[in-house]
Each structure stands twice: as C-alpha cells, then as structure tokens.
Amino acid sequence: MTDTQAGESNGTVTSGPFSFTMPGEYVYEVKELGNGVTGYTYDSKVYTLKYKVQQVGTILTVTKEVSENGGSFTAFTGALDFTNDYQRPRYTVTYDADGGK
User: C-alpha angle with apex 72: 20 to 65, nearest 5 degrees?
Assistant: First the structure.
C-alpha cells in the first residue's frame, strides 16, 4: 500500500485512520519524498510503524510501535518528526561604472 500525502503550509501531514479487522502484524514505512525544488533539503529519516493486532474472544486490541532508521522499536505515541532545510539562493552582482566601454 502506498499513501502519498501533501503537507500543510505549517508542515503538518495527516494520514489515516487505520482499521484492522483481522489479527496479525502490520508494518508500514513512512518517509519524505523530496520534490527536487532547488534550495530544499529533505530529512532522510525512515520510520517503520508496527501494529500488532491480537484477538481475545471477539475483541481486537492493537499495540503500536515505531522504529527510526532501523533502530529498536519503542511505543508509538502518534507523532513523527521530520526536519527540512531551505537555503536561499546566493547571487553575485557586478557593476561596471563605465557601462562596458
């Protein structure tokens, strides 16, 4: 499954909600896709979200974990952080007082 979301002007992106109807382990990868615009550098972090769905009787329960860049999984609180950078272009302007003569 691929879910591409555009960000808001304040940098917030929302996706979801997820619904599970069967027990099992569901794993998703979340990363930024750069758009190639000059001056922007995008965060290279890759988050892996793991949802463990267990069934007891007729009740499904979900445990959520997150891993950053292949590290250890920890409890997922629902927020992922990406940091981007923008570098303004630099120009060199020269002036010829003689008008090029």
Answer: 20
